[in-house]
Amino acid sequence: MVEAVRDALSDEMKRDERVFVLGEDVGGGGVFRATEGLRDEFGEARCMDTPLAEAAIVGASIGASINGLLPVAEIQFADFIHPAFDQIVSEAARLHYRSNGAWSCPITVRTPYGAGVHGGPYHSQSIEAFYAHVPGLKVICVASPYDAKGLLKSAIRDPNPVMFLEHKKAYRLFREEVPDEDYTIPIGVAETKREGGDITLVTYGLMTRYSLEAADAVEVDGGISVEVIDLRTVSPWDKECVLESVRKTGKALIVYEDNLSGGFGAEVAATIAQDAFEFLDGPVTRIASPDVPIAAYSGVLEEYILPNPKKIADGIRKLAAF
Amino acid sequence: MVSVSDVPGAQGLSKDQLRELYCKMFLARSVGERERMLNRMGKGPFAVTGEGHEAAQVGTAYAMTPGKDWALTYYRDLGVALTLGMTPQDLLLAHLARAESIESGGRNMPSHFSSVDLHIVSGSAPVATQAPHAVGIALASKLRGLDEVAVVYFGDGGASVGDVHESMNLAGVHRLAVVFVCENNQYAISVPASKQAAITDLSIRAQGYGFPGVTVDGNDVLAVYSVAREAVERARNGDGPTFIEAKTYRFVPHTSDDDDRRYRSREEVEEWEKKGPLVRFRAWLQENDVASKSEIDEIEVKAMAEIDAATEYAEAAPTPDPASAMRHVFVEEE
Question: Catalytic site residue A133?
Fold first, then answer.
């Protein structure tokens, strides 16, 4: 997936000279190599190393967007984005609204998020719920090469601030055919990755892959037919796609990697409970990490905390039996 | 400190320009007073103004090219907004939260100045978050080959915020066309300067970021203009940022919800009022035969007439359509 991110950046920088990237270590290619080669191709000015100062990275991006450019800021790890929270939430998200539409802020903030790489409490966090809560931001979570390329292009071209969260375990987890040509995936449109009639499983990020594995397993051993929906964008999210599926299956399981309480899946659950109540044949159920910091440096702690295909399969069976 | 005695004469400004400086300062003072009065009458929900800061604001903004250079203001900068071309009517429409306010249509609190045409960027209330925006604007100017300068304003409290330090560092590294203006009125709401910083002149911090800093008598409009003009020229010529600390004093409470009698004596305020920027510049104009007393009075009468007309207009202007609250969360498709 990291090559898909790089391709999207390079394509967009070629396509539009207003696009430039900035962040810590991006000049040398970045710690995940997502910006590898961009400095050679486009020069230092458009692939700019910054001081280690997240608020300034995002704040300067906001300023550059005000003065006609399309910045793509890289925050090295989502866990380190918190110093920039004020810039993202108070400034980027609210500039257009507070000025009654006079100013806008077309920035993209890319950052690797998620656990599963022995990252401990500070290289493992899921941060989407913080930002999905904020009006004025778009929030994308990708964990596949095809989606990464198509959605990053859409993010860069979007006239609003977009948080682009790349699951770091997916950077090199698997290969997938990605077209060379220019394509975009619309922001806010989910993808039904697998059709099924018994249960609707709503997920995003790396959990999409784990959920598909679980869905295959329960089909083989228990004959349970699971429809798997990858939201891809958590704000705005594709309510209609989810509700339509739940109206068909009558059961909903939501799987996300973030901590259970107040995680984005809670919003999905509330919406299903409110808008598809009369179609439900069982409790709207969530599988997520427990409410502890994702302290996943040790492999056994990681295994205990994070959702995985087996835990998801167990959850499917339990809901199917309800 | 640079003071008027160090800079003899009028900085090359014509008599008309000097009178214009006074006019802008008087407007800033009087619009502030009008807003606080309207607030006390229950007409405007909130007022935050900058009486006492007029020389620091007008003197720096007068060194900019309006509509070309960029202003990143904070909530006291009535004088900056008015000097760059916003009108008393713009400010009063914002104060009264009217639909046609170009600042925000009633969304933002007043004194959160904004004009796309004048390059006055809409601001927020978290303190000093506008500093990195100035850096980004200057970065874009550089990448686009433009010679626009970004001037960012904040107070002595704001000078403590990390965003300012991160911004000075980034601007220093890339020698960007940013002028940092600190209006040091010696109080962050109630916290005195001695509790805000362990140094007396905040401008010495610039050295740590690799560019010049200067402390100027912020109640002397010509001294302020002189250092600001030099800073803007330096920035425009590609010689990088400057930090200007303008030492001044706020004559009024922090906002309409503050009572400054809690934390400073009336004697202290009165002492500063005697060396206030309008009193001093008025005397200077007369002593140097730039404007007679009657000419100054005429400037003031005209300014008050403009403010009265603006008040009348703003009071009669419609409030926003309530349902418009749902608009502009995102850029609307055309």
Answer: no
Q: Compute the distance between CA of residue A232 and CA of residue A218 in angstroms, rounded to an integer.
A: 24
Tell whether B267 is within 8 A of chain A (Cβ): no
A64 and chain B: CB distance < 8 Å anywhere? yes
- Exposed e or buried b per residue across B217-248, where buried means at least 16 C-beta atoms within 10 angstroms of its C-beta: bbbbbbbbbbbbbbbbebbbeeebbbbbbbbb
Question: What CA–CA distances, in Å, run from A170 to A24, A175, A191, A229, A294?
Answer: 21, 9, 18, 18, 17
CA B161, CA B154: separation in Å to the nearest integer?
10
A window 163-202, beta carbon within 8 A of B: none
Rounded-to-integer distance, Cα B18 and Cα B40, Å: 33
Q: Which of residues 82-121 of B touch A (CB under 8 A)?
A: 101-105, 107-108, 112, 114, 116, 121
* pTM for the whole structure: 0.97
Domains in chain A, CATH or no CATH each: 2-171 (3.40.50.970), 191-320 (3.40.50.920)
CB contact under 8 A, A55 and B328: no
Residue listed under structure tokens 């000049």: A27
What does chain B come to in residues? 334
Is residue B2's pLDDT more than 80? no
Are A257 and A288 in contact by the 8 Å Cβ rule? The answer is: yes
Tokens of A141: 């979570």
The Cβ-side half-sphere exposure at A108, using a 13 Å CA radius, reads 29
Between CA B260 and CA B267, with CA B265 as vertex, the angle to 5 degrees is 130
Omega before A236 cis (within 30°)? yes
Per-residue model confidence as pLDDT tens digits over B166-210: 999 999 999 999 999 999 999 999 999 999 999 999 999 999 999
* DSSP annotation of B2: B
The model's confidence at residue B3, banded by pLDDT at 50, 70 and 90, is: low
pLDDT at B321 over 80: yes
Q: Which residues of A102-124 are buried (b: 16+ CB within 10 A; e: fewer)?
A: bbbbbbbbbbbbbbbbebbeebb
Query: End-to-end alpha-carbon separation of chain B, Å?
Result: 53
DSSP string, B255-298: STT--GGGTS-HHHHHHHHHT-HHHHHHHHHHHTTSS-HHHHHH
Q: Which among A20, A63, A159 is the nearest to B134, CB-wise?
A: A63
Distances (CA, A) of B196 to B156, B161, B191, B200: 8, 11, 7, 10
The number of CA neighbours under 13 Å toward the Cβ of B260 is 20
A49-92 confidence digits (pLDDT tens): 999 999 999 999 999 999 999 999 999 999 999 999 999 999 99
- Tell me if A234 sits within 8 A of A266, measured CB to CB: no
DSSP of A59-102: HHHHHHHHTT-EEEEE-S-GGG-GGGHHIIIIIITTHHHHTTTS
Distance CA B303, CA B309 (A): 10
Order of strands, sheet of A226-230, starting from the edge strand that comes earlier in the sequence: A191-194, A226-230, A199-203, A252-259, A285-289
Is the distance from CB of A98 to CB of B108 less than 8 angstroms?
Answer: yes
Nearest-CA residue of chain B relative to A85?
B129
- Residues of chain A contacting residue B139, judged by C-beta atoms under 8 Å apart: 60, 63-64
Full set of structural domains in chain B with CATH: 15-318 (3.40.50.970)
